[in-house]
Amino acid sequence: MIPRTAEAPAAPTVPQLPGRDHYFDLLRALALFRVVLYHLVGWAWLPLLFPSMGVMFALAGALMARSLKRPALQVIRGRVRRLLPPLWILGAVGGTAMVVAGWRPGLSALLWILPLSDPPFLGAEWAADLAEPLWYLRAYLWYVLLSPLLLRCLRRLPWPTLLAPLALSAVLSFGYLALPGRIDSALTDFSTFGACWILGMARQEGILSRLPRYAVPSLAPAVMLAGLWWAARHNFSADSELDSIPTAQALWSFGAVLLLLHVSPSWDSLPPRLRRWDRVVTLLNSRAVTVYLWHNICIFAAASLWDRMWSIDVLGESVPWLLESWVPELLLAWALIALCILLFGWAEDFAAGRGPRLWPDRT
CA–CA separation, 151 vs 161, rounded Å? Predict the structure, then answer.
């Protein structure tokens, strides 16, 4: 399994797109930033501060439920079409580099075209960093394929459907199911974040709004504490990852996402204090798949480039604190991500049937 890091003057208000949810946009942008930061610095408390993957799956689940007012096959085809071209660009660039480095793929390389399971990759650190984010696309693809069934179950049996992935996660953690590696990997991801995807669907269906106002603030912290208890029982520490404890991750993400969706204000635009970030939020939402797919290899490249600074003696002698800081690496990583947006981001426009845009930071 691939492993899973004083008020300013108001800016001009960006016109709202039909159906655009600025609160969701802000959550998605924060989730992407946190993912990049975590994969760079590896602080174990970051996924506790903001469970990015749970948030991203919940937002996608809400959008999927909204789209399923149209015929299911049409919606699935549209979602898959929007997902795959950015992956194919990554596969073309990364696959070519791996072949040049000596990789000889077999038939399993077809998973770079349709990632129903984890695609193979060259046994090198940079190739592993390139392929690491693909678990998200594989999980997303399966959620999309299963969404019509999940939505039907949610409408008939809301709470059993919501809690089923958490129960499955506990069953898997106790080892009651012995499955082949690829199936176990996919099922583990489904059980870890499936409840968040279904939470997004429940929010879109109005199921959460039917709960008493006190219910979510009372229930969600208890679920999050259960996640912390589970993590503590499995030796979670500052040197470990919450991702390595799927049930703890599932419980913590479920509780945190439940709170975030409970708050869920209706914003016609970002609040005045946040409007200065509107173009950044718009850009990250317009290029979310590109940022996620390329961020890991950009971090690898940034770290490799920054390590070379130690060979400059004057820097090592005069500003060692700067060379040891993670901030320059983060800025360099985002500069490389920006370059990837310019080079490859057009694939998202192509996939959505839009005209290509180099830097879509405006609505």
Answer: 9
